[in-house]
């Protein structure tokens, strides 16, 4: 299926109309997505102003994704240590709780 004949599902609030690509008539949900689409799929057709707008929008989107990923990583670290502390509190065997807390298993073959 070529991109010219493909149908695309777009979710737009009822009181707004979708942004449509002037090159391939693809409907997009926002002007930012339209700018990114044109820069990625129609780069050779863009003038200098549109290319600069794409670069700015791409940089803003990249920064937003980077921030989201860092927040998600922080959340995963907090969850990991929360489960670790709950496990060490619930465990009645102090040796196994110590091994989990230090993230080391028993030493095999040591003299």
Would you kindly provide a written description of the structure presented here, covering whatever features stand out?
This protein is mainly α. Helices cover 57% and strands 4% of the residues. It is built from three helices and two strands. It has a two-stranded antiparallel ribbon. Strand 1 and strand 2 form a beta hairpin. The longest helix is centred in the middle third of the chain and has 43 residues. The chain is elongated and about 70 Å long. The protein starts with 18 loop residues before the first strand and ends in a 9-residue tail after the last helix.
Oligomer: single chain
Q: How many strand segments? A: 2
How far apart are the termini?
66 Å
**So how many helices?**
3
Give the ordered list of helices and strands: EEHHH
| Poorly predicted regions | none
Shape category = elongated
Estimate the strand proportion.
under 5%
Question: How can the largest sheet be summarized?
Answer: 2 strands, antiparallel
Mean pLDDT: 81
């Amino acid at each position: 299926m070529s991109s010219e004949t493909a149908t695309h599902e777009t979710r737009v609030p009822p009181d707004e109309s979708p942004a449509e690509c002037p090159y391939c008539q693809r409907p997009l949900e926002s002007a930012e997505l339209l700018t990114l689409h044109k820069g990625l799929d129609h780069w050779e057709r863009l003038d200098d102003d549109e290319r600069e707008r794409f670069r700015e929008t791409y940089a803003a989107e990249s920064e937003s994704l980077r921030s989201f990923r860092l927040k998600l990583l922080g959340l995963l670290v907090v969850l990991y240590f929360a489960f670790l502390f709950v496990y060490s509190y619930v465990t009645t065997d102090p040796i196994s709780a110590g091994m989990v807390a230090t993230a080391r298993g028993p030493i095999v073959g040591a003299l």
